[in-house]
Amino acid sequence: MALHFERSEFDARRDRLMIEMADKKLDALLLFAQESMYWLTGYDTFGFCFFQCLVVKADGSMVLLTRSADLRQARHTSVIDNIVLWTDRYGANPAIDLRNLLNDLDLLGKRIGVEYDTHGLTAFNGRRLDEQLQTFGQIADASGIVNRLRLFKSPAEVAKAEKAASLSDDALDAALPLIKQGGDEAAILAAMQGTILAGGGDYPANEFIIGSGADALLCRYKAGRRKLNKNDQLTLEWAGVFHHYHAPMMRTVLTGKVSKRHQELFEAAEAALTAVEKAMTPDNTFGDVFDAHAKALEAHGLTKHRLNACGYSVGARFSPSWMDMPMFYQGNPEPIAPNMTLFAHMIIMDSETETAMTLGRTYLTTETQPKPLSRHDLDLIVR
């Protein structure tokens, strides 16, 4: 079996989930998020683009409802013993198959939690699910249960994150010699992703961000490549990935001369990230971390050039995004606690002068100050 953790690790996760289910008086939990299935059982697939559901009962027993294409996938990558298939055919409604399965599991009239907030359950399928369950039992939105359990990393998970961070560093090392006048974004991107894969890593849950010139102000991937000029700016956001665990980094790298505006924005970004590190302690909340970032940039007169979030939790994620919850934004009451892996990014985009500056890396929280997982320093990179 292609398991990336010991069986005892999965048993401990199941036991933690059973405690949460008992606390919320749930007789069963319907999991649709691929991250939840992977965390709980090791099940590794992109088949969540179709309807599938992992049913977890209060006694810890589990049944996976999926398609034939994922039968062997589940057997090979997970600890799931009981797998039921729904059949692809014209007019198929797998929500009916799920209702029948729940009936077979003696869950009629019981309190059932549903993981609605996930890309693994489209609005279309969610409506079909509700149609089948509205008279079946007591249905509750249980979207955040496994997400919050996943927020706190075990020692085995921390080891995965540390390996991912090492791959992130390797990717930056591979990119730097190619960042120069005439350097091709395509070659830079290929070197970074190739280095991670060659190092035993995986594809990321979303595309790497790469953009130079005016495109350096973008915070998302887009199609199209260009070559760097003598005095240019290149924004990169990437993640080393190991067994689906992500450790993102973000930098804006300059070629040629450093403009006065670039220097100003870098100093502000560095000050903001330093403030965030000081706030990323167990006596603060995710909202406090965002406030530290906002105040630092306000002191530099950059409020209108910043974003309304400055990072988020990271871990094992699947497409379409490596971003996890909770996020650093205003008023978020979630407490900082030890053994979280958190990505903090300082993103300053001055559209008036078309000047970009970013600075970000992944941290492991501790009882005191967070531990950066990158071996790279925070100096401005000029090629």
UniProtKB/TrEMBL annotation:
Extract the InterPro entries matched here.
Creatin/AminoP/Spt16_N, Creatinase/aminopeptidase-like, Creatinase_N, Pept_M24, Peptidase_M24B
Q: Which residues form the Peptidase M24 domain?
A: 161-366
Q: Which Pfam families match?
A: Creatinase_N, Peptidase_M24
Domain Creatinase N-terminal per the UniProt entry, residue ranges? 13-151
> Per its UniProt record, what PANTHER family does this chain match?
AMINOPEPTIDASE, XAA-PRO AMINOPEPTIDASE P-RELATED
Name of the featured protein: M24 family metallopeptidase
Name its species.
Aquamicrobium soli
